[in-house]
Each structure stands twice: as structure tokens, then as C-alpha cells.
Amino acid sequence: VKTLTLEKYISEVVVAVVEGVQKCKASADVWAAVEVISALHQRFPDTFTPFLTHTLARSLAPPNKQLVVLNTDQREREESSRILKQRVLLRIAGELWLIGVLRNVEDGVAALNSGGAAVGEGGVNGVKDNVAGFVSSPIKEMKEFKETRTSGEGFMYTVLKDLVCHNIRVDPGDVEQVSVYLNMNSYLMTTNINLREVGTAAPINDENNTASDRDIGLDNENEFTDSDSEPIVSASQRALFKNLLIEYFKGVETRLIKEHQ
Q: What is each CA distance from 125 to 4, 95, 233, 241, in whole angstroms?
């Protein structure tokens, strides 16, 4: 990645990356995908990252309203396909947001100009050639991007808000997606967990997870500094997530009670 000349093919690379990560099943696959994307982000921060942000945001968008014109079988197939795709993308996007590759939905751009530069990019910066050993230290990257990542609502909050609040009707598929995502990330999104604790705090959520998955990046405790005791997700953002999810599940509860009365 550090030496490849890919400027003319950034759009194709982003499309291939988004399609490829949907095949990730085991945790090891997810970590590998995050490393590859991190390396591309560091090499092409002004082209790859804005277009990736836009493409992921579109892929995680609420279902198209045109689905209502389909018959029941077609609509169920479309919804099932969307849920399966977005479940994996939510996990990947969450990891990328936590390490600072994704920041805000507004950073995304829909196209690149003839010179390969992002059109209308929203101030996405990075380290172009700092790819040591395929990807730089995740701890260093976390500290570099912490301040920018926590400005605004953040990519994951915007995506989750749009996904779960796209209409008044409660979609069981969306409830399941949110529950699965929270099961994997609630310890980061709603509790005061810092970088020093993240490796031991993460729960095992699927049969493919192993102890080694949780130990990635934690082999050298000397890499941690005093700043690593700061929460990964700021208090203001944790409050946003909590309020969003409380209101959402209250709506789910109200709808289910009405349906079973």
C-alpha cells in the first residue's frame, strides 16, 4: 500500500473495499479489514477517506421509501439483504470511527475530480506515508485523531440516528441490528472506558472470537501514557448515544405493547 500508485483508481478501490468487507465474518477478518483500510487512509487521506466516508454513509442509510411499492415477498427479500449487509458494515464503521479513520458524515464526498482530488472535501487530513509495518500503531493513531473525531455528533451517531429513526414504524430488522451492534460496542458507547482498559473490557460476542482477538495491540503496556486514561468516547457523545437509544427502545416498547393488547 505504501508504494502502490493508486491515485487514478481511488473510486474503484473504495467500491471494492466496501464490497469486500461485507464478507467479513470472524473477528480476525474484521481486524484485518480495519488494518487495510487504515493503511489506505494514511496513504490517501484526501481522496480515499472522503470517498469511503460517503460510500459507507450511503450503504448504512435507511431503506429506500420506494420499497413500499414492492409486493410482500420482494420487500422481505430486499429488507433481509439490507440487514445482512448493514450488520457487517456497522461493525466495520464502528471500528474505523473509534480509531479516527471515520469522523463525521459531513466529511464524505460523492466524487473525485479529474486529478483524483476529493471534490468538496470537509477537512479530512491524515499522514500520507506513515505506513510502518503495513499500518501504524493503533494507539498513536487513536491519540492523533481523538480531538477531531469527537467534534460534532460523529459518524456513528449520525448513522445510527438516521437508521433507527427513519420513520415511526418499528422495523424488527433494525431493532435486531441495533441490538447486535450494542452487544459488541456498548462498553465503549455508553460507559466510561479508556484506551488502557479497552482490550480487557471487550466482550466475546460470536463463536469466532478468541482471546487473541481481544489482545491485539495490547502486547506492550509501555505504549500507554497518561492521556490513555481519557475515555475513548467523550462524555457528551456518550450522552447522545444514551439518549438516542433510550428514546428508540421506548418507541419499540410502546409499539410492541400496542400490537399485543
A: 20, 18, 20, 26
